Amino acid sequence: MILPIVKFGDPVLRAKGAMVGEVTPEIQQLAADMIETMRAAHGVGLAAQQIGQALQLAVVDVAGVEDRPSALYIDGDQVEIEEHMPMILLNPELRLSKEKEPGKEGCLSFPEITAEIVRSIGVHCKARLLDGREVEFEAIGLLARALQHEVDHLNGVLFIDRMNSAAKASLASRLKRLQRDGE
Ligand code: ZN
Description:
- 25% of the residues lie in helices and 32% in strands.
- The protein has 4 helices and 9 strands.
- A hairpin with a 5-residue loop joins strand 8 (122-128) and strand 9.
- The longest helix has 16 residues, at 25-40.
- It starts with 24 loop residues before the first helix and ends with a helix.
- It binds zinc ion (ZN).
């Protein structure tokens, strides 16, 4: 089922997600609905806050984004991205590379707004999957950026918080309008 996406201005986007304990049928359904919602909106990631649930649950899918490559490493070996997408991550924790780079980002909760955001080039991610398995992997490229964006959401942090002041100032009136509509 495609769920309505919460827009900027709704306080749930500022809520830190609760840890997901037992994987109930409700959590499984929510994850399936989030994937459907993300795909319908042509996004590469979606956090539970964006469908109105403050939970540590995010979905990511960077398969087929050819102009912005990613790489995924499990136990140090590079693996095929397509075989691991979409990712459904519970309680993800990131360790970030020191090296950073700017890159264009949008957010499904901020329609028609994009900005250059400086993020770590690579991440190490520890998370639980829907089947209860604990996994650890490394990612670079668009996948690393998407994971940082989604894990921020799970902690109530939004990409506008990471924009430089000039970018934020140039978007101020659009953000104000969005926030008013979202409230
Ligand atoms: Zn977002």
